[in-house]
Design brief:
- The protein has three domains: 121 residues, Translation, Eukaryotic Peptide Chain Release Factor Subunit 1, Chain A, CATH 3.30.960; 147 residues, Nucleotidyltransferase, domain 5 (2-Layer Sandwich), CATH 3.30.420; 87 residues, Ribosomal protein L30/S12 (60s Ribosomal Protein L30, Chain: A, 2-Layer Sandwich), CATH 3.30.1330.
- The protein is an alpha+beta fold.
- The strands form five sheets. The chain has a four-stranded antiparallel β-sheet, with helices on both faces.
- Strand 5 and strand 6 form a beta hairpin.
- The chain contains eleven helices and 17 strands.
- Helix 2 runs antiparallel to helix 3.
Length: 383
């Protein structure tokens, strides 16, 4: 399966020769819901064919459609779908992405790929790490909203208390005696120079310090990801007190990962990270309001299009599920509305997002209920 993250990073979606075919549909993970998915896919492929034949002869259209038809017949593929599907094709290009979230049905032929749903998926894929910590050992996980996997610890990261402290473990300065209790039970009595709990706490703190240094050097700093601590509350307080890791989040998970299933751990980790993701979107919305008050922001589609083409847009807010069929002139920014079924017409909002990214702007996909304009677009200008 193709990697969406790698393709975006490599600039794969830029410069494909038209016609560019983009197909999106919601899918299902389990039987019997997924039985209808191939049927809906074939209907969308038919819509692509109808659009292609408006401009291209059958002998040119058919080679572009053949990979779609082969995918429709791939039973193994349709038994392993997730929540959404994206398929992009052009001459010599065919990309299939299983998506971890539903997308609206769309079949469009245009001069460039329709990528707005993919930008939204990537935007939501906020990655993080989870450090599972006990007095004796650690585990490290990495994931996002939809998946969480255990990470092999780098060389030099202590996995256990013994591995971290070795011969420097505090000797237990005590002897144990017992006495008869009620009902013949026995309970330990401590003698010696110090209580065992004090010695354990000393080693625990030294272990946590060693773990903190190693995780920061070998994992947090290279990855640059937020770190969520999953441990018992009493251990969390100590670790936060000794930690110097700037990636460590204040909020955490007050249970050791071994007490949760992997899905439960992922869900609880996402609840910690998700407010950070929302805060990023909220900050951009607030920044737009401030920019608009200083005449450095606008929500008029025609004016924003000209600013995008001129390279003036620093941040572009796009409404998630809004589609405005039309074309934008990449030289002047002039827009023209047209029917989406035409093989040279895409969503204007999608095209403007693509142009903004090419010119070094930031694109943020915003849910309709949080969009600060009624036009489906809002821009913060550089000047």
């Amino acid at each position: 399966m193709d990697s969406l993250e790698k393709d975006f990073a490599a600039g794969f979606f830029e410069g494909a020769a038209p016609p560019c075919l983009s197909l999106y549909q919601p899918t299902h993970r389990r039987h019997p819901e997924n039985q209808q998915d191939p049927i809906r896919f074939r209907n969308l492929v038919k819509a692509l064919r109808d659009s292609l034949l408006q401009k291209y002869p059958p002998q040119e259209a058919q080679p572009l459609l053949e990979p779609f038809l082969a995918l429709a017949d791939d039973r193994a593929f349709w038994s392993r779908t997730l929540d959404g599907l994206a398929v992009l094709a052009a001459r010599g290009v065919f990309r299939v992405y299983r998506l971890p979230r539903p997308v609206a049905e769309l079949a469009v032929v245009a001069e460039s790929f329709h990528t707005k749903p993919l930008i939204r998926v990537l935007q939501a894929a906020v990655r993080y790490q989870v450090l599972g910590l006990s007095r004796q050992e650690i585990k490290l996980f990495e994931g996002d909203r939809d998946a969480l996997d255990e990470v092999a610890l780098a060389e030099g990261v202590p996995r256990t208390l013994t591995e971290a402290l070795g011969e420097e473990l505090t000797e237990p300065h005590r002897t144990i005696a017992s006495y008869g209790g009620v009902g013949g039970s026995h309970a330990p009595m401590q003698h010696g120079h110090g209580g065992r709990e004090t010695e354990i706490e000393v080693d625990e703190e030294r272990f946590f310090r060693a773990v903190d240094r190693a995780i920061l050097e070998k994992h947090s700093r290279p990855a640059g990801l937020p770190l969520i601590l999953a441990t018992l509350p009493e251990h969390r307080a100590i670790f936060h007190r000794v930690s110097h890791n700037p990636f460590l989040m204040e909020a955490g998970i007050d249970v050791h990962p071994d007490a949760l299933s992997r899905d439960e751990l992922r869900e609880r980790a996402w609840r910690v990270v998700e407010p950070q993701h929302r805060a990023r979107v909220d900050a951009r919305i607030e920044a737009f309001g401030g920019a608009q008050a200083r005449d450095l922001g606008h929500g008029d589609l025609a004016q924003v299009a000209k600013a995008v083409v001129a390279g003036r847009v620093a941040t572009l807010l796009i409404e998630a599920d809004r589609c405005v069929p039309g074309r934008v002139d990449p030289a002047t920014g002039a827009i023209r509305f047209a029917a989406l079924a035409h093989p040279e017409v895409d969503d204007l909002l999608d095209d403007l997002a693509e142009l903004a990214l090419k010119r070094g702007g930031e694109v943020v996909i915003v849910p309709a209920e949080r969009m600060p304009t009624q036009t489906g677009i809002a821009a913060i200008f550089r000047y």
